[in-house]
Amino acid sequence: MYDYAIRFEQDRAPGVAVFCRDLPEFNSFGDDPEHAINQAIDALETTLSLYVDQRRAIPPASAPLPGEQVIHLPMVTVAKIALWNTMMERDMRKADLCRLLGVHQAQGDRLVDFLHSSKMEQLENALAALGKRLAVSVEAA
């Protein structure tokens, strides 16, 4: 659902530019495709932060097109996306989440901060308070 497809474009200078159809605000760069993929995960999380700052729902990923490569986000990031989108569906603010969970503002802010590491248990608890359950599956690589 949030495995975003990226495409590479060779730049005139040495390096590779990276773009994502589903997240037009996203752009990244790497020395080569492997480096570009490593940079893309950080850039995707930074882009997701823009959606939170602008109080916009984060779009689901589209199926990859030929020539695109899929980026699998960390589980914690996917859980934060689910939490944020649930909040947006309910027109909730971060302060509303803090009141619901009985936590301080800084704790609540970190739950939807893609640049901050959170514990999965905290995200599970927040989702449960909103009537959601986090499900994990294991797939072959």
What does this structure look like?
This is Antitoxin HicB. InterPro entries: TTHA1013/TTHA0281-like. This protein has 141 residues and is α+β, with helices and mostly antiparallel strands. It folds into two domains: 4-71, Double Stranded RNA Binding Domain, CATH 3.30.160.250; 75-129. It has five helices and four strands, in the order E-E-E-H-E-H-H-H-H. It has helices at 33-53, 75-89, 94-101, 105-111, 120-129; strands at 4-10, 16-19, 27-30, 69-71. It has a four-stranded antiparallel β-sheet, with helices on one face. Helix 2 (75-89) runs parallel beside helix 5. The mean pLDDT is 92.
Write the layout of secondary structure elements.
Elements: E1 4-10, E2 16-19, E3 27-30, H1 33-53, E4 69-71, H2 75-89, H3 94-101, H4 105-111, H5 120-129
Antiparallel strand pairs: 1-2, 1-4, 2-3
Helix pairs in contact: 2-5, 3-4
